[in-house]
């Protein structure tokens, strides 16, 4: 069942989104060679709690941290720890916050120091693909219009779209129906409606789209070891078009 949100609920989600975005910005300001992913996690948790919100991922299905921190070939769900970031790495940071029972969810891939041309192109294409997907989050569109737009941008840049992990509805639960794939055929799928709120989150690989999980039970990596990037916003579908909730 897809839960439509009222304008009042969307305002609460905007607050959860603001805090999520603020945590990501503060993490981004601290990203540099020499910092550990655990230090970044502390920054995010302290900020979220200082705003009176609750970290959404901490304890979620047993996840042990506030952030998912995924470096280079890691796609999503990396666990913060003692890993020291190096010049040339890319770091995907996924963050969520809960306010009054409503969730915000967003991700951003940061360059660490100076990155390769390929890495820079991957970050740019993934960010642009998210914008293209968001532009389709309108009541006159269908679900796969979003994924098709993402896929076109990513593949035109020579990259591939992860199939096994997708975006999702979001509200009083972090993951609600429907699933929101980052691929598919335009014009297909359910009719979008005002009041739907989606986490749109392209995960784009520099190589092939296959991924696998590591033995820690969380970290997902590209099967071929190539770089991966991840950008995400929580977006409300309204009569006036898409509204990004995860912004300050
Ligand atoms: Mg997320
Ligand atoms: Mg998400």
Secondary structure: elements and pairs:
Blueprint: H1 7-30, H2 37-50, E1 54-55, E2 67-71, E3 74-76, E4 90-99, E5 102-111, H3 117-135, H4 143-156, E6 160-161, E7 167-169, E8 176-180, E9 197-200, E10 203-205, E11 211-213, E12 220-222, E13 228-230, E14 233-238, E15 241-244
Antiparallel strand pairs: 1-4, 2-4, 3-12, 4-5, 6-10, 7-8, 7-9, 9-14, 10-13, 11-12, 14-15
Helix pairs in contact: 1-2, 3-4
The structure holds magnesium ion (2 copies).
Explain this structure.
With 248 residues, the protein is of the alpha+beta class. The protein has one domain (7-244): Creatinase/methionine aminopeptidase superfamily (Creatine Amidinohydrolase). Helices cover 29% and strands 27% of the residues. It has a five-stranded antiparallel beta sheet. Strands 1, 2, 4 and 5 form a four-stranded antiparallel beta sheet that branches. Strand 4 (90-99) and strand 5 form a beta hairpin. The mean pLDDT is 98. The chain binds magnesium ion (2 copies). One magnesium ion (MG) binds at residues 105, 168, 199, 201, 232.
Task: Provide keyphrases for this structure.
248 residues, alpha+beta, Creatine Amidinohydrolase, five-stranded antiparallel β-sheet, binds magnesium ion
Low-confidence stretches: none
List how many beta strands DSSP finds. 15
Q: By helix and strand content, what is the structural category?
A: alpha+beta
Could you state the CATH homologous superfamily? Creatinase/methionine aminopeptidase superfamily
The proportion of strand residues reads 25-35%
Using only C-alpha atoms, the radius of gyration works out to 17 Å
**What is the N-to-C succession of helices and strands?**
HHEEEEEHHEEEEEEEEEE
Principal-axes geometry comes out as globular
pLDDT averaged residue by residue: 98
Bound molecules: magnesium ion
Strand order of the largest sheet: 8-7-9-14-15
DSSP helix fraction? 25-40%
Count the domains.
Answer: 1
Number of alpha- plus pi-helical segments: 4
What distance lies between the first and last C-alpha atoms, to the nearest angstrom? 30 Å
